[in-house]
Design brief:
By secondary structure, the protein is of the alpha+beta class. It contains 4 helices and 12 strands; from the N terminus they run H-E-E-E-E-E-H-H-E-E-E-E-E-E-E-H. The radius of gyration is 18 Å and the shape is globular.
Amino acid sequence: MGKGKTLFLGLLAVIILPFGISLAEDPPGGKTKEPYTWRNAPRHSSGVAPDPARHADQAIVMVLAADTFGWRGYFAVHPWIIYKRAGETSYTRYDVVGWGGGNAVRKNYALPDGLWFGAKPKILADHRGPEAEGLIDQVEVAVKNYPFPREYRSYPGPNSNTFIAHIGRKVSALNLDMPANAIGKDFRAITDPVGMSSSGQGIQANFLGVLGFSVGLEEGIELNLLGLNFGIDFNRPALRLPSVGRLGMDNVDQDIPDSAAAEKRGSINREQASFKPSS
């Protein structure tokens, strides 16, 4: 077998294996991926975020991400950011949504920690107290200065992952480590191919989100090939793989706060809104 063919088969295996792992973890028709439509998929509170009323005296900033809707959930995630200042009893949420035209940056589009069309979010960043208070003004400036507010492309970007990666670059103290299956996080304008990685603590070179690399304290070493990311995280040891995201330690502990209050919140907020998923 020639070297070229061996290399091709090896690359093919590296691409297919993570997708197989993703399917094995949540097979089609399994219990965790019910046959929802965008109209009836649950969007109630997941209980991942602390109850803002019970924590009124505390500033909180969190970045969350959940599997995208339908078959795309085997390949990619949809992220968003929520925050509240000390003294506030409700969160502000920002994410990018591609349907409906106009400004793709949406404020309070859904519940702060709501299921994303049936998918439970995971925590990508979590800051509390004075540390979080100091981040909020920076986050708001980053949201305001997002360079693609009226553009949206699921692949290779700009999309919801591009938006959150932009915030991570501008607010390095978030310590944001976006998973390898956050397709679009590496999208950069063709006039700006080199700069900070999405953690704001590393360097990145990338051509329109389809070819490049990142090296940083948070993300470790990562290669982007046709929008698919492969790498290794040394900070909290894990492989960075397409479809799977991370295989190893979570970058942030997935603690579920205030479980009793969260269950109550979830039962209160189960009424469905009629909006259409784009990522």
